[in-house]
Amino acid sequence: MIGVIGGGGVAATNKLCELLEIRLTKNGSYRDAHHPEMLIYQATKVPSRSLYLERRGDSFIDDYIVVGKKLKAIVATILCMCCNTAHYAIIQIEQHVDLPFINIIEEVLFAVKDTRATNIGLIASDGCLKGKVYEKYFESILPTAHIIYPNKYFQQEVTIGICGIKNTFRFLEKDHPNRPQNIFLNVYKHLIDNGAEIVVIGCTDIRVDFHHENTIDSLEILVNKIYQMYLER
Asked: Which end of the chain has fewer CB within 10 Å, C or N?
């Protein structure tokens, strides 16, 4: 049984369940019993992953280990974290919990590799970038790739957009400039204008209000992985 360490963010974790349900239903599920049993833990009291990697907050790692052990004690046999930034410590958490984890970052890189693109835009939290969460996977899986980052202004916009997902801004009118989907579309265009062939959405919160066909979306990748695992059970 899959256990999900969620709460980072809450809306993203809920979106994971929604997208998985839609995928299964569109592919033939018509009863509750046709869907996987899952354990969802909204770990909302865990310190911010991004602030920790920005050296502005407490560590989240021990709390994630505790949550992982709770899910294991219930009956989870494999875990995942609905947060890209938390993957900074995935090896440490996996070792202490003593269960296998779905590695979102690794799965994203496999998907990027399949596109054969070499100039890759990356939209992620400040902490994810400062912790170089994606970079070490690029080095091992796609070492010839060139990562294109938002400039200072647009990285600030990324932070504003992520915060907007977590508050009422995502309910603004669709054409409102402060609506997260419009902020992320502008960041996406900025990366494309600067040479990106495809853009990695390296924060699961973003999928709550923004989706573009020319992106590799980390939450969609997690949905795909869980879906395939369920089919192969």
From this structure: C
Number of structural domains in the chain: 2
109 and 79 in a common domain: no
Q: Which domain holds residue 90?
A: 2-103+221-231
Q: Which residue, 70, 51, 69, is CA-closest to 60?
A: 51
User: 74: exposed, middle or buried (C-beta count within 10 Å: 0-12, 13-18, 19+)?
Assistant: exposed
Q: What is the CATH number of the domain that holds 153?
A: 3.40.50.1860
Q: Which helix (H) or strand (E) holds 79?
A: strand 78-81
Residue 58 main-chain phi, psi, to 5 deg: -75, 160
Same domain, 111 and 91: no
Q: In degrees, to the nearest 5, what angle opens at C-alpha 69 toward C-alphas 64 and 70?
A: 95
| Residues 55 and 142 placed together within one structural domain of the fold | no
* Residues 32 and 52 occupy one common structural domain: yes
How far is 221 from 105, CA to CA, in rounded Å?
Answer: 9
* Dist. CA 190–CA 193, nearest whole Å: 5
> Is the same domain home to 59 and 120?
no
Q: What is the pTM assigned to this prediction? A: 0.96
Phi, psi of 10 (to 5 degrees): -65, -50
Q: Please, what are the averages of pLDDT over each run of 10 residues along the chain (233 residues)?
A: 96 98 96 96 96 95 98 97 97 98 98 97 97 97 97 98 97 97 98 98 98 98 96 88
